[in-house]
Amino acid sequence: MQVKIDTSVLAETKWSDYAIRFLFGGMITAAAGIVAKKCGPGVGGLFLAFPAIFPASATLIEKNAIDKKRQAGLDGTKRGRKEAGADAAGAAIGTLGLFVFAVIIWRFVTDYRVWAVLLFATAVWLVVAVGTWGIRNVRRIF
Amino acid sequence: MTQIIIRFFVGGIVVSLFAIVGDILRPKSFAGLFGAAPSIALATLALTVASDGRLYAATEGRSMMAGAIAFLVYASVVSRYLMRAKCPALRITVAAIPVWFCVAFGIWECWLK
Lengths: 142, 113
Description:
heterodimer; A: mainly alpha; 1% strand; B: mainly alpha; 2 domains; 6 helices
């Protein structure tokens, strides 16, 4: 399966959709900080991997797929939900990278410069997530 | 208060950027990888180190591992139900949020507390 970039989606997306994701992203980031202050970093850290904008993104994917099918005179409901489901399956694979990111932060942030640790952890997240997705596509092990 | 406002804006921008990257990529299973990007962590960890120290950030990282496992379970449940195409995406993704809370706090309570 070949990876492609389709920028036409950006023009189809309403500003309100971007605003909703900005709002949810900002709110959960602020909330993670407040929870950490009130309950300690042990509980606050859980929210660093909270699916903050997942419902908004899945709904947008479903809506865009349905709109495309309806323009062609088809229902598109099933297609929309399946596309959102495929996105969720990709996110499940991406969580393996997220887990490794967290391990790197935990083990190295006390000893090295924070920007270097974040950069390294992000690079490893990307390699693990994309690598696992690639293996899944080649061997269908999931 | 100032730090919460900074977190809100930085978090909103970083989360939105990762979401836009996910929007433009095909196939959707690949784009989904960016739905589990460490966006909140990237937006806050540098601020956390500056304000509360490295040990505090390391403790957050340790708990984030439990959050990531909870995210895996949550995304798997959502994917399975969406593939059956019986309910709208919003209903399934919101209804499954308690799954994340149960798994994340369950792991934290059993192993990390």
